[in-house]
Amino acid sequence: MQKRDFPWYEIVDNKEPVLQGDFFLSCPVFIPTTASLFKEDESPTGDIDEYDVIVMSQSCDLVLKKLDLVLVCPIWSLGDLEKENDFFKKLEGKEALRQGNVPGYHLLNKCGIDDFEREYAVVDFRQSYSLPFNLVIDIAQRQDKRLRLLPPYREHLSQAYARFFMRVGLPIDIPRFK
Fold it and tell me: Which residue among 148, 149, 152, 170 is least crowded, i.e. fewest CB within 10 A of its CB?
């Protein structure tokens, strides 16, 4: 049986519709300040941070324009994550990521496509942001080309997000068997 090639990524141009798994670099995200939430008759204040993000909203909803807001999650390089958390410097931490055993994080493979090379990337589900649909379309059109995660890896990412989101913590667990 011949082994099939399943590439992780492709490059799409700005004429392509935005789909789940599209990467946007230096994407602006508005972070409101707490004080701004309680002032009547004033526009909210906050910070605009920039993140490299991946689109998490479903492709069918994006293509059919059934969304006002698009869900995105930040992406960190594995190297940046290692600087923030010593666990990921260890082989054990990297393996836990690879196996999908670190709630809130999902590991993506390296990308070797010319001009889009990336080391291992980690999607951070703990920081999900909603961006206006029209802003995402505008960002997509301003970028000449963008990286896109391909099936089945895109669906695997979506499933990992669903597993993280649907977790249930019990107030009293069943005791361990001894």
Answer: 170
